[in-house]
């Protein structure tokens, strides 16, 4: 008798389910304003129309060379002829822009259990 072949369909379905899953970290993301524009209410969408890197990359992929050079001039970069290098510089500039709008709040750790004596003991190693 010939051996039966097992189908690989079941494992393929499991991998597609894993690729569609997303992971949540469970933290509440609160960002504090780091520039005057943010204090006045700017959300950073005026220059790039998005704060997502993948959306910005699809915008760049849809641009022609002349459009990308005009966009680089608008952003403040010197436009160059090599599209790959220009695209890399634009993405780097975009990530820097996004990071200025996503500065996390610093939480003060005022533990009431720490007394002055404990703080002095812990501060001896400085």
Shape: flat
Distance linking N and C termini: 78 Å
Mean pLDDT: 78
Number of strands: 0
H/E series: HHHHHHH
Contiguous low-pLDDT stretches (5 residues minimum) are none
Helix-and-strand structural type: mainly alpha
Estimated share of beta-strand residues:
under 5%
What's the story with the biggest beta sheet? none
> Taking Cα atoms only, what radius of gyration do you get, to the nearest Å?
25 Å
> What percentage of residues falls in helices of 4 or more residues?
40-55%
Number of continuous helical runs:
7
Structure notes:
Helix content is 53%, strand content 0%. It has helices spanning 9-20, 36-39, 45-48, 53-61, 65-75, 83-101, 116-123. Helix 4 (53-61) packs antiparallel against helix 6 and helix 5 packs parallel to helix 6. It is flat and about 65 Å long. The N and C termini lie far apart (78 Å). The longest helix has 19 residues, at 83-101. By secondary structure, the chain is mostly helical. The chain has a domain at 34-102. The protein contains 7 helices and no strands.
Features:
about 130 residues, mainly alpha, flat
Write the layout of secondary structure elements.
Layout: H1 9-20, H2 36-39, H3 45-48, H4 53-61, H5 65-75, H6 83-101, H7 116-123
Helix pairs in contact: 4-6, 5-6
Short summary:
With 126 residues, the chain is mostly helical. Helix content is 53%, strand content 0%.
């Amino acid at each position: 008798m010939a051996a039966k072949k097992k189908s690989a369909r079941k494992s393929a379905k499991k991998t597609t389910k894993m690729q569609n899953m997303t992971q949540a970290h469970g933290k509440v993301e609160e960002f504090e304003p780091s520039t005057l524009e943010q204090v006045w209410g700017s959300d950073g969408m005026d220059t790039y129309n998005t704060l997502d890197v993948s959306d910005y990359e699809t915008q760049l992929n849809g641009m022609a060379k002349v459009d990308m050079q005009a966009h680089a001039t608008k952003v403040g970069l010197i436009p160059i002829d090599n599209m790959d290098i220009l695209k890399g510089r634009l993405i780097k500039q975009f990530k820097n822009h996004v990071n200025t709008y996503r500065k996390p709040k610093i939480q003060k750790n005022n533990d009431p259990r720490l007394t002055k004596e404990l703080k002095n003991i812990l501060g001896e190693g400085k």
